[in-house]
Amino acid sequence: MNYETQLAGDIPAHVFDEDQPRSGRRRGLIIGVAVAILLIAIAAWMAFRGTGSGSAAPMEQAPVVTVIVPGKSMVDQTTSSTGSLAARVEMPVGVVGEGGEVRRVLVQPGDWVRAGQALAVIERSVQSEQIRSLAAQVEVARADAKLAQAQLDRAKALVARGFISQADIDQRTATRDAANARVNVAAAQLAEQRARTGRLDIRAPAAGLVLTRNVEPGQIVGSGSGVLFRMAKDGEMEMLAQVSEGDLATLRAGNSATITPVGGTEQIAGRVWQVSPVVDPQTRQGIARIAIPYNRAIRPGGFASATIVSGTATAPMLPESAVQTDAKGHYVYVVNADNQAVRRDVEVGQVSGKGVAVTNGLTGAEHVVLLAGAFLAPGQKVKPEVRKAS
């Protein structure tokens, strides 16, 4: 046994048993401290990252919106109005002659007729017999005139022989002239009767469209029967547009207009042909008469709306999607320099296929939200993407 072995053998066994637990506790403490330091480092790194990117986080969360800079475009200045429809030149047709029993009615409402065309035929048996009588009288007068001319010719042949005096010649000449005059009188009476008989038929005073019919076969008509037919000359119609006093001052004859009859969607082009020189003192409105070519959708007595172009101006033009409406009126959202959505109340003018004309509230240089305006709130941060105006 050497010295080391002897020394080790001299150390009690419990000394080695106490050193082993103490070494394990030391290792556990070291590991715990290392884990704590690692956690602190991770927390510090996360805090530093959050502080460094705090200014960019709101922009990353802000919604992306498409904006447009509308500028200014030439737009029509329009006036909207309502009014009734009527024939531009309405022609009431009644009995011109003596009247009588209506035998036939030849037209219906909606028919086109030419000038002088018969609309209804009145019974004329008595007038026909009168025409025959007068025609016979004309023949009698012509026969008398022919006989008087023959007698005058024979008398002139006997004057040279001295059998007949010049006084007889003058007498026979007067007889011949009177006979010729009676022929003319009889012919005039015949023509008058034929004209009277022709006036029994109710005829169109001009070409146009039949609007109404108030007569039936078998009806007795006369000068007091009133209007039997109503016609629109050449089928032309018009709208009597009620226009406010202020708007009336901007209208001129020749202004174009678009008419939409109530109950329909068809838009009909027209043109102002007369502007009322007076204003109703009660309603403060005047009448703009708009000429309309024939269209089946136009019915006299109906109602329609009209948009009258009174001039042109420059104004921002926006797509309809950019303009919102609520109880306060029309508005748009404008993105300011801080990328905030700001509500801007506007007034709109004509709406057409090109878009909505903004007559007040915008200069045209703003960044207007094109879409999604209904989902924004005033002051909300956004990320604008500019789209070029078309």
What does this protein look like?
This protein has 390 residues and is of the alpha+beta class. The chain contains 6 helices and 23 strands. A 6-stranded antiparallel β-barrel has the order 2-11-14-13-12-15. Strands 3-10-8-5 form a 4-stranded antiparallel sheet, with no helix packed on it. A hairpin with a 5-residue loop joins strand 18 and strand 19 (341-345). Helix 4 packs antiparallel against helix 5 (166-198). It is rod-shaped and about 185 Å long. The termini are far apart. Residues 1-18 and 50-59 have low confidence and may be disordered.
Topology:
Layout: H1 3-10, H2 13-52, H3 57-61, E1 64-68, E2 73-87, E3 90-93, E4 100-105, E5 112-113, E6 118-122, H4 125-159, H5 166-198, E7 202-203, E8 208-213, E9 220-221, E10 229-233, E11 237-244, H6 245-248, E12 256-261, E13 268-275, E14 285-292, E15 303-315, E16 317-318, E17 324-326, E18 329-335, E19 341-345, E20 347-352, E21 355-360, E22 368-369, E23 383-387
Parallel strand pairs: 1-23
Antiparallel strand pairs: 1-22, 2-11, 2-15, 3-10, 4-6, 4-9, 5-8, 6-7, 8-10, 11-14, 12-13, 12-15, 13-14, 16-21, 17-18, 18-19, 20-21
Helix pairs in contact: 4-5
